[in-house]
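Work through this:
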Amino acid sequence: MLQFIRTWKRLRQIGLVGLNERNAEFVLMHNPRRFYPRVDDKLQTKQLAIAAGLPVPELYAVVREEHEIAELHERIKDRESFVVKPAHGSGGDGILVITGRRGDKYRRSNGHLMPRDEFEHHLSNGLSGLFSLGGQPDHLLVEYCVQFDPIFDQVSYKGVPDVRIIVFLGYPVMAMIRLPTRLSDGKANLHQGAIGVGIDIPTGKTRRGVWGTEIIREHPDTERSIVGLDIPRWDDLLHMAARCYELSGLGYVGVDFVLDRHLGPLILELNARPGLSIQIANGNGLRHRLASVEALAERGDLSTDPAERVAFAREHFATR
């Protein structure tokens, strides 16, 4: 019992936010249900971002009906690489990354060749709702395949890393980069075995990582350090994340970016219920940072200027 009390006190001291607390005090309180489609539907998110002048991966096609699957081969015949993703997918399920071709087969990011009938079967499953939230029929997005920034060549395994920034009432409060591993099959998804690496908000430097329940400082596949990396275009990422408050209408939102070696930062998707492993990756809890923003709201001092919100975050939310 004494050890439990000590652990509880320590968690409260660092401000660790639990799942129930996140849902009750932040998601339910600050995320109006009527705005959920803006983030749960990736096509709608993309359209809103484009309207706001924010960069996203180019959309090649949208597949809504079964007959459009056969037609897709012709529509993308000149595309060597592309990504297929369910519009209402979650956790990376159903995302298909194609990096090349050989004859009438598609080469996946893991190097395996996918026959045309297997490709069509995957898309048919996506339309039926196999990968969607609630299992409802879905539509599929076919879009540009990101070429990740070379800074990540030595700390990523056959996949595209992504940066997540949690934004509360327009203020970036915590960030991490998710690095694919062999275990995650090249996907930047923590639940599937990717690494979460905390990013210091003021500097944009990586601090430490978490892989499952293990705190790490090197990538398990490449054995290269994941600490002290400078995230490219960090200032741009923070400003774009801050603007997603107005874009989404959600007070508590996770903004996911990819960093393309040619195009720079691109918004990948938004999440109304971002996970809490970001706290472990940073070695810091969210509670104190969220409380700082809540204090601004209580005083009526919330800024409507994204640049001012970023400046506040950089001044107050250093990783300790």
